[in-house]
Design goal:
Layout (H helix, E strand, L loop, with lengths): L1 H8 L3 H39 L6 H33 L5 H26 L7 H13 L4 H22 L3 H77 L1 H17 L5 H32 L8 E4 H9 L3 H6 L3 E4 L6 E4 L1 H17 L6 E8 L3 E8 L6 H5 L22 H11 L4 E6 L3 E9 L3
Parallel strand pairs: 2-4
Antiparallel strand pairs: 1-3, 4-5, 5-7, 6-7
Helix pairs in contact: 2-3, 2-4, 2-7, 3-4, 4-5, 4-6, 5-7, 6-7, 8-9, 9-14, 10-12, 12-14
EC number: 2.7.13.3
Catalytic activity: ATP + protein L-histidine = ADP + protein N-phospho-L-histidine
Enzyme class: transferase
Length: 461
């Protein structure tokens, strides 16, 4: 029992935080409204007592004057308190200490006001109704810590006792009033402790519910995130199966057929026929290799495995390195490929990623450019970025194709001018690699005239 009593008066660290925030806010709000309501009530008392003041004489006159004085003082005090709370706490929340002082001032005004008015009332009545009212109001309205509550109601009774001994001359009435005052103070203390415990428990429960709600929201968001990841993984798996089953199966089948044809008819084939077949075989092999490479890169990007390693690189040399492995594809279609980039432009980028981007964009242009066409690579340097353009005079694209070109989840593949096939991943890889390096990618095209693919990269500073 003793331990429970001690625990009741103990203040935990959580309780301290609640007292400094929630309970302070609640007390300020209640004191403000109590002050706003108390002003017209006291004003009404003043008006009523003044209206009958002229007809009063003797002790009744003194009683009315005392009541008017006390209620006028209460009006002034409550006006100051309500204005202070409004401007210092509710409107700006700039002075918490001042708000705490206002709460104490209201508590003390209730304490002294109830006792003082009850003492003055003893001139004409034995009732202690004002003390009853202020004791009940303070226990219900104010949220006072248990230790302070004991001190408050003890002090309240002492003030009441002293004033009553001064104002009440009849010893029988005095004893009755003092006993009633003690009972009321005890009742007020009990109510105060009950309301304190109820409100503290309510706030704790509300905080716990709020915490659990936030945890549920967080867990739900995590669940959604993991669900999306699973969907993406499932989409990736389906895409891989589709590519392996269809897009890579066809070129590999062609390779098998070509090698079978050469092995069976090698003796009867002319050198020109063998050379033509080998050129075709080389082309198919290079395209298949690039498709497999794109497939590997795309899989890594889907699994968030790639992180760019930024280094200062000469752009012209980077483009030359990108062109070298695929120049034979241009030669096979007799396409003129021109690197027009100035030799003094440096960029800060991941060279490996950018080589993949440039290579994929050039292969895309080769794919949709007819024999003896032209492809040019240009760059424009701005203060904060470099824009690279890969332009061809190929077959171009219709607006509806251009619109969904780089949209995630809309990968598609179209056969080239010589029925070249692809996985549909090249442009998606370009977009992801450019964005990983802090740039953007876009395209312009006119059907039947050609296309230009642009991508930007941050300038080397």
């Amino acid at each position: 029992m003793l331990n429970k009593l001690i625990d009741f008066f103990k203040i935990s660290e959580e309780d301290r935080k609640i007292i400094k925030t929630n309970i302070l806010n609640e007390n300020v709000r209640r004191v403000f409204y109590l002050s706003v309501i108390g002003i017209p009530i006291s004003l009404l008392h003043v008006i009523l007592f003044i209206s009958h003041l002229k007809s009063s004489v003797g002790i009744e006159y003194e009683w009315r004057v005392s009541i008017i004085t006390i209620h006028t003082s209460i009006i002034i005090l409550l006006s100051i308190i309500s204005l202070t709370i409004y401007f210092a706490f509710i409107k700006k929340r700039s002075n918490i200490r001042l708000a705490e002082i206002c709460i104490v001032a209201v508590a003390l005004s209730l304490l002294f006001g109830g006792a003082a008015i009850s003492a003055v009332d003893q001139k004409i009545t034995t009732a202690i109704n004002p003390f009853i009212a202020t004791t009940i109001i303070s226990s219900i309205i104010l949220l006072i810590r248990p230790v302070y509550s004991i001190l408050y109601y003890s002090f309240s009774f002492i003030i009441f006792y002293l004033l009553m001994n001064y104002a009440q001359a009849n010893p029988d009435v005095l004893i009755s009033n003092n006993v009633n005052g003690l009972t009321l103070s005890g009742l007020g203390l009990c109510l105060s402790l009950i309301f304190w415990k109820m409100n503290l428990t309510r706030i704790k429960q509300h905080k716990l519910i709020e915490k659990q709600k936030n945890e549920l929201i967080e867990n739900l968001n995590k669940l959604k995130f993991y669900s999306e990841e699973l969907k993406e993984s499932d989409t990736t798996k389906d895409k891989l199966i589709s590519i392996i089953a269809h897009d890579l199966r066809s070129p590999l089948a062609s390779l098998i057929n070509v090698t079978k044809l050469v092995s069976e008819d090698f003796d009867i084939m002319s050198p020109e026929e063998i050379k033509k077949i080998m050129i075709s075989l080389n082309k198919e092999t290079e395209l298949t290799f690039e498709s497999l490479n794109n497939l590997l890169l795309w899989t890594k990007t889907q699994r968030k495995k790639l992180v760019p390693v930024l280094k200062t690189t000469n752009l012209n040399q980077l483009v030359e390195n990108s062109i070298l492995p695929i120049r034979t594809l241009c030669n096979q279609k007799r396409i003129a490929l021109a690197n027009n980039i100035a030799e003094d432009i440096d960029i800060c980028t991941d060279s490996s990623m950018m080589e993949s981007v440039i290579k994929n964009l050039i292969i895309n242009s080769i794919k949709f450019t007819k024999e003896e066409g032209n492809i040019s690579i240009n760059a424009t340097a701005y203060e904060d970025k470099i824009i690279i353009a890969i332009q061809d005079n190929g077959i171009g694209m219709e607006p509806k194709v251009l619109e969904k070109l780089f949209k995630s989840g809309s990968e598609f593949t179209t056969n080239g001018t010589q029925n070249e096939k692809g996985t549909g991943l090249g442009l998606q890889i370009c977009k992801e690699f450019v964005e990983l390096n802090g740039g953007q990618i876009w395209a312009e095209s006119k059907f039947g005239i050609g296309s230009t693919f642009y991508f930007s990269l941050p300038a080397n500073k």
